[in-house]
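User: Could you go from structure to sequence for me? I need the amino acid at each position, not a summary. Structure tokens:
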């Protein structure tokens, strides 16, 4: 199985750099952060076999990944969820060339590859933001990226900036691959905004991108800035537009 890193309400940073590169440690209010200003080139990062990074807590912590090609697969997870009354943290992924989030597992426990800054059930604090910046983003095989609310706190923003974005496929474990900012059943917080900035957006084979509400809070907004969008728009019974 993959490894696990947990820092409750803390900070996890993973960076992969090439030869003759220097990574600095800069002091910040909450501790330290990595600086890549003297990095000549980046290398790959792979999370697989149910690997996990988690900074969830009363206040969500911060997770940052920076590399060339970043792959998160095989029911691996990155979680910066708000569990109490504190403010949410941030999940930030920067892949110079690509970010690929894919796959699920049926054994020993059914689970999908999942990235989230969700507000947990019972939590009253607001959720954090989730940012992905890369040339090419692929979300496939039932993997899900979420900034939603299951509690009273409002969800954060899910923003993707990439030249190419492809959402494709689903899984038997939890349904469609995609980008989501939902208000879950029973939740009273408002949903997060979903922002996609890309030249080409492709959504197919059952994948979805939506901001909807099944609870008492309002759904967030969907903002798409794209040159090409070969998808179909649908109108749900919850009176929120989504892409399917």
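Assistant: Here is the amino acid at each position, in order:
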């Amino acid at each position: 199985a993959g490894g696990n890193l947990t820092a409750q309400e803390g900070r996890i940073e993973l960076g992969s750099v090439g030869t003759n590169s220097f990574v600095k440690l800069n002091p910040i209010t909450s501790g330290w952060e990595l600086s890549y200003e003297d990095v000549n080139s980046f290398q790959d990062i792979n999370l697989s076999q149910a690997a996990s990074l988690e900074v969830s807590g009363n206040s969500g912590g911060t997770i940052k990944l920076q590399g060339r090609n970043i792959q998160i697969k095989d029911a691996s997870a990155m979680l910066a969820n708000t569990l109490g009354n504190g403010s949410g943290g941030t999940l930030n992924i920067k892949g110079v060339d690509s970010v690929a989030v894919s796959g699920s597992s049926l054994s020993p426990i059914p689970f999908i590859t999942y990235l989230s800054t969700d507000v947990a059930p019972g939590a009253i604090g607001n959720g954090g933001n989730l940012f992905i910046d890369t040339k090419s983003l692929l979300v496939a095989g039932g993997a899900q990226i979420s900034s939603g609310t299951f509690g009273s706190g409002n969800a954060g923003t899910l923003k993707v900036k990439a030249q190419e974005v492809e959402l494709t496929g689903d899984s038997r474990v939890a349904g469609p691959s995609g980008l989501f900012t939902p208000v879950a059943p029973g939740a009273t917080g408002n949903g997060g905004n979903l922002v996609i900035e890309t030249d080409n957006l492709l959504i197919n084979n059952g994948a979805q991108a939506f901001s909807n509400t099944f609870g008492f809070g309002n759904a967030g907004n969907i903002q798409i800035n794209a040159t090409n969008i070969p998808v179909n728009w649908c109108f749900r019974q919850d009176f929120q537009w989504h892409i399917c």
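One structural detail worth keeping in mind: Residues 233-241 have pLDDT under 50 and may be disordered.
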